Automatic annotation (TrEMBL):
One of its GO terms (cellular component) is cytosol. PANTHER family: DNA-BINDING PROTEIN HU (PTHR33175), INTEGRATION HOST FACTOR SUBUNIT BETA (PTHR33175:SF5). The gene is ihfB. GO terms for molecular function: DNA binding; structural constituent of chromatin. This is Integration host factor subunit beta. It comes from Tropicimonas isoalkanivorans.
Length: 95
């Protein structure tokens, strides 16, 4: 599912809201999640999962084409851990 599909589904399920308002709500939620993660905060959506940022240390990697060693800088990457409810539904266990 892509963002525009999510907006369309939410707009259809909430006919009392204008589509532009639903779009603004979805964009605001995503921006808040991104902002919190950029500050290093953890974002938890109960039953769905938790977004966090993990630090990857600098290391020596390899260019897959040439096999040459390259230095890879330290970086921060997004990480998502599923919640129990989501995991159970994906595995066919209804709670």
């Amino acid at each position: 599912m892509i963002r525009s599909e999510l907006i369309q589904i939410l707009a259809e399920e909430n006919p009392h809201l204008y589509q532009r308002d639903v779009e603004r709500i979805v964009n605001t939620v995503f921006e808040e999640i991104i902002g919190a993660m950029a500050r290093g905060d953890r974002v938890e959506l109960r039953g769905f999962g938790a977004f966090s940022v993990k630090k990857r240390d600098a290391r020596t990697g390899r260019n897959p084409r040439t096999g040459e060693a390259v230095d890879v800088e330290e970086k921060h990457v997004p990480f998502f851990k599923t919640g129990k409810l989501l995991r159970d539904r994906l595995n066919g266990l209804e709670s």
